[in-house]
Amino acid sequence: MLGTWKTGEIHDIHQDMSQLTVKVITKVLFGVDITQMALEIGDALESILLQYYHKAQTSFLLPSWVPTPGNLRANRAIEYLNKLVIDIIEQRRESPQDDLLSSLLLAQDEDGSQLSMKELRDEVMTLLLAGHETTATALTWTLMLLAQNPEVAQKLASETQSVLEGRAPGITDLPRLPYTEMVLKESMRLYPPAWALSREVAQDCMIGPYFLKRGTSVFFSQWVVHRDTRFFDNPEQFLPERWQDNLELNLPRCAYFPFGAGPRGCIGQAFSIMEATLILAMILKQNYFKLVPDQAIELLPSITLRPKYGIKMILESSNL
Ligand code: HEM
């Protein structure tokens, strides 16, 4: 990707990051290279997320089979993704490899039977969608924040350039890129890719002064908690340095929870931090971004927190 970037070009950085992370996740987990389809997958996902956002706003008034233009677009997108995922599964069935998908093909249900095609499809779809859109959004907001805070970008570029000295980063470099990781943490505090989660109450209970009846839906939002002054000084400010000296260990549990918590916490946390740190280091070692002036940057709080109109940036060579 970086090889195709040229100084002075304008890029929608959200589109670039989505295409990149979809390529990474399909290659890493399923051993397939879907470079050609990365754009179509991004578009399909966008139609589904837009429709989900629209439905959440209109309280799910109409079921998804009603042929509104949005429903039709989203249903077509779901069909496209289902077919793509089934093709990936069939491809791997014919030629097993040493990857996650081949292990899923051998996996067994509680009753000892093999997973059905629908179960396999659902597993692969979850990993494909949960495994790329979140990381892409995290990288997008990070690059925006860096463009808005040039002194942080400068410090980050100094770290990557002095550690890497021009070469590509590898896994052993991770411990030597602490500032890069702090930048990511701080970006996910202000712009958590998963901005709200929900649970259904399993049994009648009290939480603080509130009585919650079994079956009630409860929503809790990273966006809100991460900006609470009880836990973070100057919460609206982008300050990666706040994470030095182990802030995370000193916070109450769930004051910072971009990856959720408990038994349903994210299984991709370590992977995505590794991936995002390496991508950021790789980008920042030779590039610098400016935001295209006067563009509208708005939030689209769908399942993930996306920029509604993408984020346009002008590429420049790093001047360090
Ligand atoms: C910055 C990147 C990521 C963020 C912010 C993120 C966030 C989350 C959150 C908040 C949850 C919990 C949902 C809930 O409690 O209802 C979750 C679950 C999950 N994540 Fe991630 N995630 C990221 C990357 C990934 C990656 C790379 C993968 C796959 C390789 C992945 C796979 C999953 C799966 C399978 C679950 C469901 C776990 C379960 O229900 O047992 N995620 N993620």
UniProtKB/TrEMBL annotation:
<dbReference type="Pfam" id="PF00067">
    <property type="entry name" value="p450"/>
</dbReference>
<keyword id="KW-0349">Heme</keyword>
<dbReference type="InterPro" id="IPR002401">
    <property type="entry name" value="Cyt_P450_E_grp-I"/>
</dbReference>
<comment type="similarity">
    <text>Belongs to the cytochrome P450 family.</text>
</comment>
<keyword id="KW-0479">Metal-binding</keyword>
<keyword id="KW-0408">Iron</keyword>
<keyword id="KW-0503">Monooxygenase</keyword>
<dbReference type="InterPro" id="IPR050196">
    <property type="entry name" value="Cytochrome_P450_Monoox"/>
</dbReference>
<dbReference type="GO" id="GO:0004497">
    <property type="term" value="F:monooxygenase activity"/>
</dbReference>
<dbReference type="GO" id="GO:0020037">
    <property type="term" value="F:heme binding"/>
</dbReference>
<dbReference type="InterPro" id="IPR036396">
    <property type="entry name" value="Cyt_P450_sf"/>
</dbReference>
<protein>
    <submittedName>
        <fullName>Cytochrome P450 family</fullName>
    </submittedName>
</protein>
<keyword id="KW-0614">Plasmid</keyword>
<dbReference type="GO" id="GO:0016705">
    <property type="term" value="F:oxidoreductase activity, acting on paired donors, with incorporation or reduction of molecular oxygen"/>
</dbReference>
<keyword id="KW-0560">Oxidoreductase</keyword>
<dbReference type="InterPro" id="IPR017972">
    <property type="entry name" value="Cyt_P450_CS"/>
</dbReference>
<dbReference type="InterPro" id="IPR001128">
    <property type="entry name" value="Cyt_P450"/>
</dbReference>
<feature type="binding site" description="axial binding residue">
    <location>
        <position position="266"/>
    </location>
    <ligand>
        <name>heme</name>
    </ligand>
</feature>
<dbReference type="GO" id="GO:0005506">
    <property type="term" value="F:iron ion binding"/>
</dbReference>
